[in-house]
Structure formats: C-alpha cells, structure tokens
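Chapter review. Work through the record for ABC transporter related protein before attempting the end-of-chapter questions.
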Amino acid sequence: MPPASHPASAPVVDIRGLTKTYASGLQALKTVDLQIGKGEIFALLGPNGAGKTTLISIVCGIVTPSTGTVLADGHDIQTDYRNARMKIGLVPQELTTDAFETVLATVTFSRGLFGKAPNPAFIEKTLRALSLWDKKDNKIMTLSGGMKRRVMIAKALSHEPDILFLDEPTAGVDVELRRDMWNLVRELREGGVTIILTTHYIEEAEEMADRVGVILKGELILVEDKSELMKKLGKKTLTLNLQDPLATIPPALAQWDLTLKADGNELAYEFDSNAEHTGVPSLLRALSDQGIAFKDLNTRQSSLEDIFVSLVHREPAEDIRAGAAT
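Structure tokens for ABC transporter related protein:
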C-alpha cells in the first residue's frame, strides 16, 4: 500500500508507526501513519470493530499504544501529556455526564479542569451555538438524549481546543442537532480548529470532509483527498428503463456485465467514467441490434458510500472482531 498522503503544511496531528495489541492478543491497530493539517476536517470511516475508537482513544491519551508516537500540535501525547491534552477536545460516543449538575455548571467546570481562566462570555456563546442556553439551569438528568449530546459537545469545546475529535457524534440524534452541529463545525474550522470525526453517516463525510480515511481490521487501508477519491474510484451507473420487461439478459450482451432490475424493467450498467472507452455507445448499438427499446435512461455518479462499500467488500471475508477495537 502506498504511504498515506498528508497536508504540505506542518501537521497539527502527527501519528507515526502506531500499533495497539491488547493482552488478549487482539491487534486493534496495525502500523498507522497519518498526518492531519491545521483547520482540516478529516473523516475516518470504517465498520464497527475496525479500530476507529481505539485510534481516537490513543491520540487523546486514554489508551496507551503498543508502539509509535502521537504529537498534538508538537506535544507528545505520552511524554508531554498535559500540554498535548490541552490542545484536544473529545466528544465520545457514550453519554457520560454529571447527571445532577446543571448544564452551565458542568460546562464551566470542564473549562476549569483544563486550567483555563473563567470566561462566562465564551461559555454562553458555546451554549447558544448548540441551542443550550435556555437549558443552562436544567439538571442534565432531565434532558433528552439529543440535549445530552449537545452538552457533551459543549464540554469538549469549553477549553477552546485546537483539535476536536467527534466520535460518531450524530449517531442516534435528531436532524435539528445534526444541522446545528455541522454549522458549528464550519464555524470552528473557519477559526482554524482541526476536526477529526468518525461517522456512519457517509453523506456527512461527503459534504464536510477535506480528506477521508478508511480503516478496516485495524489497518488504515486508504487516505485520500475526498475529491481525488471520488475521481479515482468513482464509477457511474447507466440505468435504462426498458419499453418491455426482459426475463433474462440476452447472451449477446454478456460482455457488458449488465444487471437486470425492477422485475426486468431496468437494465443497469456500471462503467468507469474516466476510461477512454466507457462501453456505453457500443452497448446502445447492441441493444438496438437485439431489438431492445428503452423509454428513458439516466446516469448516476457513485457516492462516497458506494466507494466505501466496494473497498470493504474487496477485503477477504473475515469476521471483524468487535470489542476493544470498536
């Protein structure tokens, strides 16, 4: 596999030779090298058990790596933990909040934990950005799941970090929170904050990310600029709506590897839009020769989700062990 591409400017997150093997023998990470630039939005995609949370936990100093180094804005996460951790905000998957505290108190306390001087105006601005200001005096135990998620984000932002990790941030939350959060991410990015997110909502990565990394069974199998990834791996699908349904695909059309859909009413042909010869003109001529007429046709560019699924399915069909490597 070629080395991961990385930004030309000095990376704000610099991961080199990172591995993690647990006492059970489970190898959760296999030699991860990754550099992420200031103000970049980096999306880390992978199925459950792929190693996403293990990687984030190591970078945030929660899990100790077996080998390798991690620098957060130049500070080693192991030998200079305090300064490194000051640079990082983490929104974990789990809702772990102080149930009996008020929203304002717990977010203010989080800021103090990092040794930051009180700044009520900043805390208010953060709570307003997350639509939490009118809930500031509510005890967290009384809030809905979506509101608790907002509190977790506010806590992570309370000490004004330069690097923000969002681990499956919108899993199971309402559309309104998702919209608010992505607006906030855009604002943070404009202020120079680096954002690393893991997500199952691939359309969000497709919309927001500058680069995409795909992790599978502990290995970073691909890191690519999103636009380059779409260009290199993106396929187009030509769909033909037939005049009359087909029971089977005629042998004369076998070379195009067509798929029959919609009870025989549609023919689908996947082709490489970057290829010199796409095969589309010759297919249309062959259909005419076979007396197969169509009412309509359309083409669709592969989405990032299509690309992700094709990458994952290209791997050997082994069980991906869940557990510590989620």
